[in-house]
Write a structure and sequence with these properties.
The chain is of the alpha/beta class and about 300 residues long. Helices cover about 40% and strands about 15% of the residues. The strands form 2 sheets. Strands 1-2-10-7-8-9 form a 6-stranded mixed β-sheet. Strands 5-4-3-6 form a 4-stranded parallel β-sheet. Helix 3 (about 65-75) packs parallel to helix 4 (about 95-100) and helix 7 (about 145-150) packs across helix 8. The structure holds pyridoxal-5'-phosphate. Belongs to the ACC deaminase/D-cysteine desulfhydrase family.
Length: about 300
C-alpha cells in the first residue's frame, strides 16, 4: 500500500525557503479512505484470524470511519454493524446511505447511551442483541490501528525534516510517532477545541505500542475554527484556493484545518529555511457531500 507524494509549488513556500509535499493517503483506495484504511488493515486480519464474520463499530452520522468500515466489510467479506450516535434522520445522509449500500446494518443510540461505547457490559449487551462481532472502537483507534499507521511513514521516498497530520482521536499521529521512532519533527493539528487532552492519548498509545516515549512531537492546538466540524468562511475560502492552485481536494473537518494551520505557520516563519515538510492528506472526502448539504455551503 503506497500513497504518492505530491510536491507543491507556491510563492509562499519559495519566499520562506521551505519545501512541502502532500502525502496522498486519500488516494490509497477509492472507498476505504486514507488513515481509516491504515487503521483497519491489521484489525481486519485479526478479526479473520479470530474467526469473526462480523465487525461492530461506532460513529457519528457523518463518520469517515463508519463509511470506511462498511466499505472494508463489503470488500473483505465481513458483515458490518454500525452503532450510530443520535436519532435516525430520513432520507439517510450520503455517509449512512453509502454505509447501508455496502450492507452495513445501522442501529441508532442516544447520546447518553453512546457515552458507554467502551464499557464492557454495554459491549456485551450489543453483542447479545446483534450477534458476536469483532469490536472496533470509535474512530477505529486501537493498537492494531497504531501499527497500521506506522506504515504511513515507512519507505518515504524523500528526505524530510517535518511531518504534519490532522488529529481526531490521535491514533494516526501515534502511529506516525511510533513509525519514526524519535526521528524528524512531528506536528499534530487537533480538529477539535481543547485538543490538549490528545497529548495524553498519544502518549499512552505510543507507550503501549513502543514500550517507551518520544519527545519529537508536538500539538498545534489553535486551528480548530471553533470546534469539531465547525467551520469559518476563511477556512472554506482557503480550501477552495488550495484546490484551484494544487488540484487537491481537502475536507473541512480535518485536512482543511491542518493545511490552513500549516500555511499559517509557514507564513509566520515558524519553519527554518531549508525545512522539508510532509503534510499527510488523511482522506475523508466522502464527508464533503453531507457537509455541504447540512451547512448549505460549497466545499
Ligand atoms: C478520522 C480522521 C482523522 C483523525 O484521525 P485520528 O487517528 O482519529 O486522530 C484525520 N483526518 C481524516 C480525514 C479523518 O477521517
Amino acid at each position: 500500500m503506497k500513497a504518492p507524494l505530491q510536491k507543491l509549488e507556491d510563492g509562499l513556500l519559495q519566499e520562506q525557503g521551505v519545501t512541502l509535499w502532500v502525502k496522498r493517503e486519500d488516494l490509497l483506495h477509492p472507498q476505504i479512505s486514507g488513515n481509516k484504511w491504515r487503521k483497519l488493515k491489521y484489525n481486519l486480519q485479526e478479526a479473520g484470524q479470530q474467526g469473526h464474520h462480523s465487525l461492530l463499530t461506532f460513529g457519528g452520522a457523518y463518520s469517515n470511519h463508519i463509511a470506511a468500515t462498511a466499505a472494508a466489510g463489503k470488500e473483505y467479506g465481513f458483515h458490518t454493524i454500525g452503532i450510530i450516535r443520535g436519532e435516525e434522520h430520513l432520507p439517510l445522509n450520503p455517509t449512512l446511505s453509502f454505509a447501508t449500500s455496502c450492507g452495513m446494518q445501522l442501529h441508532y443510540i442516544s447520546r447518553e447511551e453512546y457515552r458507554h461505547k467502551s464499557d464492557p457490559a454495554f459491549l456485551d449487551e450489543l453483542q447479545e442483541k446483534y450477534g458476536k462481532a469483532y469490536l472496533l472502537p470509535e474512530g477505529g483507534t486501537n493498537l492494531l490501528a497504531v501499527k497500521g499507521c506506522t506504515e504511513i511513514v515507512a519507505d518515504m521516498p524523500v528526505a524530510f525534516s517535518h511531518i504534519c497530520c490532522a488529529m481526531g482521536t490521535g491514533g494516526t499521529l501515534a502511529g506516525i510517532v511510533a513509525g519514526l521512532a524519535g526521528d524528524k519533527a512531528i506536528l499534530g493539528f487537533p480538529a477539535l477545541k481543547g485538543g490538549d487532552f490528545l497529548r495524553q492519548e498519544v502518549e499512552e498509545l505510543v507507550q503501549a505500542y513502543c514500550g517507551k516515549s518520544y519527545s519529537n512531537w508536538q500539538l498545534v492546538t489553535q486551528y480548530h475554527f471553533g470546534g469539531y466540524a465547525k467551520v469559518k468562511p476563511e477556512l472554506l475560502h482557503f480550501m477552495q484556493q488550495f484546490k484551484e492552485q494544487h488540484h487537491i481536494q481537502l475536507e473541512p473537518i480535518y485536512t482543511g484545518k491542518m493545511m490552513y494551520g500549516l500555511f499559517d505557520l509557514i507564513r509566520q516563519g515558524h519553519f527554518p529555511r531549508g525545512s522539508r515538510i510532509v503534510a499527510v492528506h488523511t482522506g475523508g472526502l466522502q464527508g464533503n457531500a453531507g457537509f455541504a448539504q447540512r451547512l448549505g455551503v460549497q466545499v
